[in-house]
Amino acid sequence: MTGQWLAIDWGTTNRRVYAIAADGTVVASERDDRGILSVAPDGYAAEVADIRARFGDLTILCAGMVGSNRGWADLPYVPCPASVAALAEAVRWVEPGRTAIVPGVTVAEGRRRDVMRGEEVQLLGAVSAGLAPADALLCQPGTHCKWAWMVDGRIDRFVTAMTGELYALIGKHSLLSAQMTGPAAPGTDFLAGVADAADGDLSARLFGVRADAVTGEGAIGHAASYISGLLIGVDVRERLGAGDHAYVLADATLGGLYRAAIEAVGGRATLIDSQAAFVAGITQVWRLIR
Amino acid sequence: MTGQWLAIDWGTTNRRVYAIAADGTVVASERDDRGILSVAPDGYAAEVADIRARFGDLTILCAGMVGSNRGWADLPYVPCPASVAALAEAVRWVEPGRTAIVPGVTVAEGRRRDVMRGEEVQLLGAVSAGLAPADALLCQPGTHCKWAWMVDGRIDRFVTAMTGELYALIGKHSLLSAQMTGPAAPGTDFLAGVADAADGDLSARLFGVRADAVTGEGAIGHAASYISGLLIGVDVRERLGAGDHAYVLADATLGGLYRAAIEAVGGRATLIDSQAAFVAGITQVWRLIR
């Protein structure tokens, strides 16, 4: 175990632990639902003690919401443009020499503020692992979809869109909920939504789904796919156009929807492995602080 | 009571009854919560019997959701362009010679369908009463905000935006709910939202409200007002621009927010009385069918 250490991607709901060898190889990993919402404010030391009991008495480097005001320690954000070196410099040791946390990143553009905690490690890792070039647009779809513009290997700027949360709100609580049966799929109805997103008139297009059902005309097809296409279509069209290339860090299902929308607007999408990106990124930070 | 009759604006949640004299004057009215959601499918005849017991044994003309599949009778929609004459021709007598219902209106533009039931009477009435010109843009804010383009006194086309419903969803069920304290007001923060709506990037602007709170920078001010400004701003910017004039049928509170947004984009807004418009519209229909 010489040179071995532990990395933890510690989010709001989930947690993933990696045992990493000196050469950067992942030798073991586990995923559980011990995200910060499942841990009491004073429970973090016991959590990492449990992890060491399973993986060995190793040094731990964490990233994600564990570094927020609801986590183990509230670390200030590193401003954009943010490099691996800047993150490493701002790492906080919560157990001296034993356990450290990587900070999040922030950006300010006019009145708009944006923040991330955890995604910055994936973004920087994707570039350092060669999964994406040093100058690239990266996309992390999800409840809060992040788009980051990498310049010279740093996070130059980024924007978070509530795309996934809006889809969930409409699916669970709106007039349209009853129509949104089954999961969205990247077929004809999804692409119709992406096309209709071009006019930017989201809230009128949404009511159109209702009117389509009321009139019984069926012009819209599968409502969940169409609405997913509308929302992802608006998101994608705001970020890129014909000829642009985006690197998407997501599983095949959600990544497939984003890829279909990106291609529909004339862009190109490459799906990359977000776990590999995380491991590469946190290993880069590790090498700068150990 | 010679020549007197009853008009009912019978919506989903509320109902308003007007006793109208032969000359079109309202001699009595009442508002209650006996909208169609409070009435059993076979309960409508008893409802109008109760109304006649209070107002007199008069002929009744209804409009609104009472003419839907969840109401007393499911009337087909009249297509745009829709005139008072077309509505009058499609009136359905549910109690022959005693009680009739005015149909709703529909429009189809490409894949988009739209429908209204009840608003058409207000729209046509606003013009016939001289509250708005025969060629005008009319706006009916609410849960589902309707915008109608009147041409030559007819409803030429219209669009419904889920603006109010999205605001309610975000206020009740989203990550931003806790920040949205108190009602929206048409001040600086609302106008900042209207301004930020210009880039069309609603879901990123919404996440910005969260990031503003997390970073503690307070760049956004009163979140409810800012978010209301964003949503109404997107809605207004889709419909009109500098120099355009909209006639808004709404109460002073919601109408005031729409007026502020319309003026912020360089348009002009006139608030008009939606009850007066309804009475004028249904009186026009009445005169054609009696």
TrEMBL record, chains A, B:
- Tell me the Pfam families matching this sequence: DGOK (PF05035)
Protein source organism = Sphingomonas floccifaciens
Q: What is this protein called?
A: 2-dehydro-3-deoxygalactonokinase
Show the InterPro entries listed in the entry.
DGOK (IPR007729), DGOK_C (IPR042257), DGOK_N (IPR042258)
User: Lineage of this protein's species?
Assistant: Bacteria, Pseudomonadati, Pseudomonadota, Alphaproteobacteria, Sphingomonadales
Origin: domain of life: Bacteria
The residue range of the signal peptide is none
